[in-house]
Design a protein that fits this description.
CATH superfamily: Mog1/PsbP, alpha/beta/alpha sandwich
Number of strands: 14
Distance between the termini: 32 Å
Strand content: over 45%
CATH architecture: 3-Layer(aba) Sandwich
CATH class: Alpha Beta
Largest sheet: 7 strands, antiparallel
CATH topology: Protein Transport Mog1p, Chain A
Structural class: mainly beta
Strand order of the largest sheet: 5-6-9-13-12-11-10
Radius of gyration: 18 Å
Order of helices and strands: EEEEEEEEEHHEEEEHE
Shape: globular
Helix content: 10-25%
Length: 222
């Protein structure tokens, strides 16, 4: 299972409060502060190009793996970090101890991947969805809430929504420490695209609103 804990290094931050329409152009992307608490980012790379709006409270990181097989571009948008008590295993004593740590409360990621380069020309978003759900369903309290068709930037895709046990921190009660996952998958230009939101179950309404805004403003440019 993909761990919900998202520790990250911010590569580039564009702070443009005084000039909301000023663009910041860095390696592979251009970002504009469009006001009202939103950035518009345009990604341009060998795999394709797209633009999207996202809430400025999210911290951005762009990961490129064009030399990997399969090649990928990954835009990570990480929500606020919060401190909380966490139960961890102490290998020295063999006991579970409570410590104060930090972890992310939410993240929204956009994956562009050339799976066909690795799995062959027949690979599609359906293969990606089936593989993901098969893995997640191995967790005892996995619950698929929705799987339905969806159109994004003119392409036909699928929406998948589910709850799953969080890998960390260790839950005090089984099935009580759940994370909410909402993801859209589609194929375009021989690539598999995935937009995924992961968050604490108790803030799913806010993250859903942020996710829906990203889906509504997502435009493939080529």
């Amino acid at each position: 299972m993909k761990s919900f804990i998202r520790y990250f290094t911010i590569i580039v931050i564009c702070t443009l409060y005084a000039f909301p329409q000023l663009a910041c152009s860095e390696d592979g992307y251009t970002q504009i502060d469009i006001g009202d608490g939103y950035y518009q980012i345009t990604i341009e790379n060998e795999l394709g190009s797209y633009s999207v709006e996202y809430p400025s409270r999210y911290k951005k990181e762009l990961r490129k793996g064009l030399e990997y097989n399969p090649p990928f571009i990954h835009l990570m948008l990480d929500g606020p970090i919060k401190k909380e008590q966490t139960e961890v295993f102490d290998p020295g004593t063999g006991e579970i101890k409570t410590v104060v740590g930090e972890r992310g409360t939410s993240s929204i990621s956009i994956y562009t991947t050339n799976f066909k380069a690795y799995y062959g020309e027949s690979y599609s978003m359906v293969d990606r969805i089936e593989s993901l759900l098969e893995d997640e369903a191995k967790w005892e309290h996995f619950k698929l809430q929705e799987r339905s068709p969806l159109t994004i930037s003119g392409s036909q895709g699928e929406l998948v929504v589910y709850l799953v046990d969080k890998l960390m921190p260790i839950p005090r009660e089984d099935g009580k420490n759940m994370e909410y996952v909402r993801a859209v998958f589609f194929d375009y230009n021989n690539l598999t695209w995935e937009i995924e939101a992961i968050c604490n179950e108790d803030i799913q309404d806010q993250v859903k609103a942020d996710f829906d805004h990203i889906i509504e403003t997502f435009v493939i440019l080529r």
